[in-house]
Design goal:
It is built from 23 helices and 3 strands. The chain is mostly helical and 482 residues long. The termini are far apart.
Length: 482
């Protein structure tokens, strides 16, 4: 059974660059770094077969598997023993050699028991030839150099193993899940914190795997632990919110909605069950379980400090916002059409709280306030519209709004000197000297001597530039009189 979250769609206007970068890094490592592994392994097999080591180690390998089955209860190795015996019967020296060279636990068994397995002469030959193959080829394989080997744990391999993969099926499966989960978690955390959390989850996943595989020489490779960490972070971010999940069971698939956190014990239980009962599958189930716990734990422990979810993460996407805005706007317009102005005002104010960057809402609210110029709301909306026009670099609209207020609302609630002063500056920039002079007269009557003096000086200078001597002289005289 497969269960994956399917709550979000990718917003390609803001691509998940870190997720895509991690995917690209895995592909490049697989192609250009791990791409040489097959050649090294072929050379190792050729050397191994030509040296006659297959005849020395083959019987020892059968005995090794039989001991594991008989004395250690590893019944799942019976299939491996049967397959090896079939290779012997078919004289498949290449695949027998691959099995013997790549079984790292068997190699350690030979090193520890060579004195009782072979004669002194055979031991010397084996040690010399096998050591040469190990040092020349096997130890240079990517999994041996940068994979996570529990018996030889190092800090850097807790990171490097996350970018190695065991084959095309392995890497393609991991990249699909990395993309499906990564773009959502990256959007929630932001690129930098997402990358660090991803790597930390992979490292903690590797540490859990090491704890359950102490002394093992089998290398762990792949991004599965990191991706399990993304799963843990995903459900912890959504918490008890109901989100959509996709599930696949045999040939049947469908969607269901459930609280995000309810799926965490299902995933965790499956990994633990498979660890104990699935047998030797080559899948690092405890690494997956460790990643799940690490991802959820990081969000729970650091979610109120360093690993906070960005506020805009839970906001609807632009398309969804447009649909909601259109629906709400249509309702407000319908109320206006019925002349239910109070309801329309409430609807427009509610919309403006959700969509403060939509200037048309302020314009409608201004027009509604204009119906009652004697109320304070008209003054409030006028100032808001003037400020909005100025911020959007529309000085003409600001001047028009100001002039309209002078004719309708000034007698009830006069504008402040600062309002007239802004209009004067905007008018001078637009070379609208008529409006500038009108703003100056209003400014003179607003009892703001410092603003009035500065405005008078600016007007005098402007008329002097335009060689309008009478006007310039008039304002110079006012300036001197003041």
């Amino acid at each position: 059974m497969l269960i994956i979250p399917a709550e979000n769609a990718v917003n390609w206007k803001r691509p998940p660059w870190i997720t895509l970068g991690l995917m690209l890094a895995c592909v490049l490592v697989f192609l250009f770094y791990q791409g040489g592994d097959s050649r090294k392994l072929e050379q190792a097999v050729d050397t191994y077969v030509n040296s006659g080591l297959l005849q020395l180690e083959g019987p020892a390998y059968e005995d090794y598997l039989q001991r594991k089955i008989r004395f250690e209860g590893q019944d799942e190795l019976a299939i491996e023993l049967q397959q090896f015996q079939e290779l012997i019967a078919e004289n498949e020296s290449f695949w027998m050699s691959v099995n013997l060279l790549m079984d790292r636990e068997f190699y350690q068994y030979l090193r520890q028991n060579r004195d009782v397995i072979w004669t002194p002469a055979e031991r010397v030959r084996w040690l010399e030839q096998r050591t040469a193959i190990e040092e020349t080829y096997i130890q240079r394989l990517s999994a041996q150099q940068l994979g996570l080997i529990p018996a030889k744990l190092s800090l850097y391999t807790l990171i490097t193993y996350q970018f190695l993969h065991g084959g095309w099926g392995h890497i393609i499966g991991n990249l699909i899940f990395l993309f499906l989960l990564g773009f959502t978690v990256e959007k929630a955390l932001g690129p930098g914190r997402f990358l660090l959390a991803y790597l930390v989850c992979g490292a903690l996943s590797g540490a859990v795997f090491t704890a359950f595989s102490v002394g093992s020489y089998i290398p762990l490779v792949g991004a599965s632990g990191s991706i399990s960490g993304l799963m843990g972070m995903y459900v912890a971010i959504y918490g008890l919110q109901k989100i959509r999940f996709f599930y696949f069971l045999g040939v049947y698939f469908n969607y269901f909605r459930a609280p995000a956190l309810a799926i965490l014990p299902v995933w965790l239980g499956k990994e633990i069950y498979d660890y104990w009962f699935a047998g030797a599958t080559g899948v690092a189930y405890m690494a997956h379980a460790g990643g799940l716990l690490a991802g959820a734990g990081l969000v729970w422990l650091l979610g109120k400090s360093w690993l906070q979810v960005r506020d805009e993460f839970f906001e609807p996407e632009e398309d969804e916002q447009d649909e909601r805005f259109t629906a709400g706007y249509a309702q407000a317009m319908a109320s206006l059409g019925r002349m239910d102005f109070d309801l329309a005002r409430r609807q427009l104010e509610a919309l403006r709280e959700q969509y403060p960057d939509r200037p048309i809402l302020l314009e409608h609210l201004y027009n509604l306030a204009k119906l009652r110029p004697d109320l304070d709301e008209y003054l409030l909306r006028t100032r808001e519209l003037m400020n909005d026009s100025l911020s959007r670099r529309q000085p003409e609209q600001m001047v028009t709004t100001w002039q309209e207020y002078l004719s309708k609302g000034e007698s009830y609630h006069p504008l402040a000197a600062e309002d007239h002063n802004r209009v004067l500056f905007a008018s001078l920039k637009q070379q609208d000297l008529k409006a500038a002079e009108k703003a100056f007269e209003r400014l003179r009557g607003a009892s703001a001597p410092m603003l009035t003096t500065e405005a008078c000086r600016l007007l005098a200078e402007e008329f002097e530039k335009l060689e309008m001597a009478p006007k310039a002289r008039h304002y110079r005289q006012l300036l001197s009189a003041g």
